[in-house]
Amino acid sequence: MFDTILIANRGEIACRVIDTCRRLGVRSVAVHSDVDADARHVQMADVAVSLGGASPVESYLRGDAIIAAARATGAQAIHPGYGFLSENPGFVDAVEAAGLVFIGPSASAIRAMGLKDAAKALMAEAGVPVVPGYQGAEQAPELLAAEAEAIGYPVLIKAVAGGGGKGMRLVEQPRAFADALASAQSEAKTAFGNPHVLIEKYITSPRHIEVQVFGDGTRAVHLFERDCSLQRRHQKVIEEAPAPGMTFEMRAAMGQAAVRAAEAIGYSGAGTVEFIVDGSDGLRPDGFWFMEMNTRLQVEHPVTEAITGVDLVEWQLRVASGEPLPCAQEDLSITGHSFEARLYAEDVPAGFLPATGRLSHLAFPAGARADTGVRTGDVISPHYDPMIAKVIVHGSSRAVALRKLRRALAGTQVAGTVTNLAFLGALARHEGFSNGEVDTWLIGRDLEALTAVPDPAPAAIAQAVMVLTGLDRAPAPLDGFALWQALAQDVTVAIGDESHVCRVVSYGPGKIDVVVGETPVAARFGANGWRFDGQPARAARVEGARATIFGDPTLVVTWIDPLDVEAGAGASSDLVEAPMPGLVRQVFVSAGDAVSKGDRLAVLEAMKMEHSLLAARDGIVAEVMAEAGSQVEAGAVLIRLEEEDET
Ligand code: ADP
């Protein structure tokens, strides 16, 4: 076994590899970009080396700098993780030329599987079933159109150098072929520098089932299958193992085909053979075809670990250091069922747009494995993949594992950025998915229902009102309210672009009603804290005027402070004044800045609350008279805008 290895990656996979290093007593070396200097993987590693830069090209793709870091720190081997340099045969050659071990397959095995057309031809030769199609070098459009005709519509055009669904087009009718071909080729040229495509039969009712293999360079074993049919635009969302409905015969046939594929290229280490499966008529041993082989550890490897009890990273290190395969095929078996859900910072209603932000809170529930590269306080930056974590569960059966997945997602707490958590929760409750009826079109078909935003629960809004106003902190009635006399106050909150007026009525210690719109919610304080209509308070987090009430779904509620409106609507639109005595917390502008109506110019803390002071009109800041930290009187002028005719 190695003494020291370098992990040429970041995020959750770097942390995942370091976990195993620690367990095996192997020293770990992290590399990092400038923006990742304080990242979790850097903190976890024994040694860290800066690569500089921010973008992958300036950092994690700098093979030479990574090899130099390995040599300087005494690492004997490099683990590439996934993505970045993991499937780059030139990097493998360079690592070996430097006298180091690449923890993965040989450069020639990666090359053999690098292009889809060559890989398909090679697999067909090795006796692995491949999707019927054309994968020749000749690329004349008329010839490709004739091949498509011969294969029979619908057909799929795929970039031979493709990945991530890029350069791929489904063509249902001959008349759509020419345009689809041109756009696939141009996308492939831009994305991969290679316009070549192959044409294959489009499998209707397709399921994506892949087989985990592990080789020692000569022999290989398989660690059963994963079903990755829950995809959105060819990107996996929830994966599971084993595949629902898998039969003994089909598993044996797929496993043997995958082992043949790996052995045909002298595969060493962890790899995945992806098959497309025709699910229109149940799973049949003659209904699966090779799509491609991923010559690295996959994102979704934990579901395989969960059902087999194997630590795949440990196997990678052992085999790369020269040990034989840790066990034979007959020693491997499946226990129970496992799911993995990919938690992303993304704006689902806006079309799954990647999001960024500082994670003001991040916590995972017990009873699930959470593979993550970030902690509370970390930033999801625009430089890298916006994955926050993988949430993995295991249960004795599919039904048990699915219930655990729902609970784990409901118990996952993220504040500070939008996430796909509600979408994952909806997917985990989807009826067809629950019944094991999966295919790659499931998400697309039911997208509207899966992304529908449910009406927020009045009890959760009531709780948000209480935490935002600080009323939850003491069971005593509001300061300033007379004891034992029902007193009311209106609080307006916004959820997305919907505002809700809530009437808070205090009856005495620990007894408050919050009327959300028309719906009264009884908030009562007892030995176990607050309850809302009898339900225990949910975990919550407040930052300024924003409360996050965790749960399924998590609710983000913003307090619309009436003083903001007053400050904004003030008669003298030139002056921003303190509406009450208080402490200036923050000032966001300086003289000369252009501001727009409604911009937040400063924050005043008064009466234990933060008040945003807004610009009443567009203009230029003439003068800032307040500084953060200073105490001011009511009516004090904090900021003056240039008079309108000056601007
Ligand atoms: P990429 O390398 O770009 O990810 P793949 O070849 O792995 O492309 O295919 C991505 C996804 O496209 C598969 O998971 C599957 O959902 C779908 N797909 C690929 N080939 C076919 C096919 N012949 N018929 C139906 N669906 C397919």
Written description of the protein model:
With 647 residues, the chain is an alpha+beta fold. The chain folds into six domains: 4-103, 3-Layer(aba) Sandwich (Rossmann fold); 132-201, ATP-grasp fold, A domain (Dna Ligase, domain 1, 2-Layer Sandwich), CATH 3.30.1490; 206-335, ATP-grasp fold, B domain (D-amino Acid Aminotransferase, Chain A, domain 1); 343-453, ATP-grasp fold, B domain (D-amino Acid Aminotransferase, Chain A, domain 1, 2-Layer Sandwich), CATH 3.30.470.20; 458-559, Glycoprotein, Type 4 Pilin, CATH 3.30.700; 575-641, OB fold (Dihydrolipoamide Acetyltransferase, E2P) (Beta Barrel), CATH 2.40.50. It is 27% helix and 32% strand. The chain has a nine-stranded antiparallel beta sheet with strand order 29-28-27-26-25-24-32-31-30. An eight-stranded antiparallel beta sheet has the order 14-13-10-11-12-15-22-20, with helices on both faces. It has a five-stranded parallel beta sheet with strand order 3-2-1-4-5, with helices on both faces. Helix 4 runs antiparallel to helix 5. The longest helix is centred in the middle third of the chain and has 17 residues, at 248-264. It starts with a strand and ends in a 6-residue tail after the last strand. Residues 566-571 have low confidence and may be disordered. The structure holds adenosine-5'-diphosphate. The site of adenosine-5'-diphosphate (ADP) has 22 residues, from strand 7, strand 9, strand 10, strand 13 and strand 14. Residues 120-321 form the ATP-grasp domain. Keywords: ATP-binding, Biotin, Ligase, Nucleotide-binding. This is 3-methylcrotonyl-CoA carboxylase subunit alpha.
